[in-house]
Amino acid sequence: MRLAAFLLPLTLRGCALLVAALALLLPVQARAEGQVALYASPSTRAYLPGVGGSHDALLGPWRRLLQGRGHVFRELHSPEELAALKPQDVLVLPSTVALSAAERGALLRFRDIGGQLLTTWSTGARDVGGQWMGHGFLRELTGVDVTGEIEPTSNRRFLIPYGDTPVNREVPAGRRIWLGELAERPLALKGGVEAAAYLDWARTVLQPNSHSSAIVYDEGGARPGRRVVFGYAETAWSFQPGDFEALADQALRWLLRRPSVHLAAWPNGTRAAQLIEMDTEEGFANAIHFAELLEQIQASGTFYCLTSEVRKQADLVKRLARHHEIGFHGEVHYGFKDLPRDKQQRRLKRMLDEMRGALGAKGDWVAGVGRGFRAPTESYDETTEALLMALGLQHHTADPSRSADRLPVFAGSPDPARALVVLPRGQLDDLNYMDLKLTPAQVGAALVGEYEFNLRLGGLGLLSVHSQNFADTDQLLNRPTHSTLMTQAVEILTRHIGPRHQQAWIATGGAIADWWRQRQRARLDARMPDANTLELQVSVSGNAPVSGLTLLVGHRSANQAPRLQASAPPGGTGAAQLRRIDRFSSALVFPALPPGRHSLRLSFP
């Protein structure tokens, strides 16, 4: 029986007592100093029926979340009850659109004593009588401005959460979460630290900072407490309730200042991963300048090659292989989707044979070639992926619809060691940019904007360029003139990346897939023996170390990093490095963590 269903028949007082008892049984959820208060504003309750709304429709999702996730909470119904809150308490204002003068005063007093606030949608935008007052009170209360609304006709009605942030350790980076087309128009926010954006299905970013913020958080400054602002109303939760509840729960835990630690998506403390790849088809020689641009920033890319072209360009492919990964793009530029299994198998075998014939063999594999595949025209099906695994390929660079998240996924086997790692293309490619009729400068700005957005997102960026679209070729001199749209745009991107290379892990498809498998061999268990200590057990399975494993640790207060000590023989943990990332988080990085169990202890100020 689900916990929420079990709790429903109980009184509110009984719920709180039972949840408190259950919380004592969970070692990683030590008793928090504060409690959660859910404010049921009498002014908002009186206003909503007149416009066809329901206060319980806004409060209900929070009641279910708080009961189901084990939070000790109480409901408040008056300014007088607000006055009794303590600074360590967390106050939730669920789309509290109408507020009286007394309510506003009580909320500002709670802000002034350093209280912790979570507000959603149009807090205080109307007075006690329902008259429109604007979003000035939200700014006064939280320091966050409203810069606009997301119209019902807009295609930017997907909430895209950032991964590995202090307020989100659970929902994967870049997940598409549908907001619906409701009357409560989502608000675009400005202020604090971004934690989610409003974007279209393709997550289109056409220039730096062109997206609108959907969730922001902050701490300190003129307002000493922590605050989180959701720009959307609770009525949107019904579309993907699990994701919306997870985001709300994670925000509450941050506001309660509970110590947190979890496995980061990417190695060595990097914020995001970036694959820059070329579908190498016609204009094969254009790959040279593409490779040179990557080498200028000390980065490696992947060249997914048509093997019918490799047969003509073996020396060029060997030159590329010195610094980059060579992968497979089929034998001819024709898709695989819906073809009979035997035909797909014959084509893939011919692809392998052609590459082996051009480059030679290395044991049972092809000399100097990785085990990655990218289907021509992104046309493939489950049969294709099953055959890739059977033939020994290990990763597949796929289309944007392959995953709702912007992270790698496993396919074909429940065992990550045997599964195919799928790398979904979560951003526009050169064909998309060409269809938009943009200038080289505009495409360059879009590539820079996408790179910067992916750093915020903490996801996998995947830029795909076709060789025939990268540069014109002078047929007499047989060399690139570097005059095409994508050539100039990629040059703009690499100039931008140069000084910022260390913030993103720019790697080949094979390296990213290998890391994703390594990461699955690590397990983290945590317990809190007291309110200021976190004891960690990191287990590594298999026979080889995991290189660059990173744990992200949330600070209990801004700029107050925890202290690290190994509480058992190091066995590899002695080399762990605790690095501060920002005001709210530190990264615990293990250069090489060998198989076995490793114990560590973190103490929080």
Task: Describe what this molecule looks like in 3D.
InterPro entries: Class_I_gatase-like, Glyco_hydro/deAcase_b/a-brl, NODB_dom. Residues 1-32 and 568-572 have low confidence and may be disordered. It is built from 17 helices and 32 strands. 29% of the residues lie in helices and 26% in strands. Strand 30 (577-580) and strand 31 (585-593) form a beta hairpin. It is an alpha/beta fold. The chain has 3 domains: 3-261, Rossmann fold (3-Layer(aba) Sandwich); 275-517, TIM Barrel (Alpha-Beta Barrel), CATH 3.20.20; 521-603, Immunoglobulin-like.
For the structure shown, list the relevant keywords.
605 residues, Rossmann fold, five-stranded parallel beta sheet, single chain, 3 domains, TIM Barrel, alpha/beta, disordered N terminus, nine-stranded mixed beta sheet, Immunoglobulin-like, globular
What's the arrangement of secondary structure elements?
Blueprint: H1 3-7, H2 12-24, E1 36-39, H3 42-47, H4 55-68, E2 73-76, H5 79-82, E3 90-93, H6 101-112, E4 116-120, H7 136-142, E5 145-149, E6 158-161, E7 177-178, E8 187-190, E9 193-199, E10 212-220, E11 223-230, H8 241-255, E12 260-263, E13 272-280, H9 287-296, E14 302-305, H10 307-310, H11 314-321, E15 325-328, H12 341-359, E16 361-362, E17 365-366, E18 372-373, H13 382-390, E19 395-398, E20 409-411, E21 420-424, H14 430-435, H15 440-457, E22 460-466, E23 473-474, E24 479-480, H16 485-497, E25 504-506, H17 509-519, E26 522-530, E27 533-540, E28 546-554, E29 563-566, E30 577-580, E31 585-593, E32 596-603
Parallel strand pairs: 1-2, 1-3, 3-4, 4-11, 13-14, 13-22, 13-25, 14-15, 18-19, 19-21
Antiparallel strand pairs: 5-8, 6-7, 6-9, 9-10, 10-11, 12-28, 16-17, 20-21, 23-24, 26-27, 27-32, 28-31, 29-32, 30-31
Helix pairs in contact: 6-7, 9-16, 12-13, 15-16
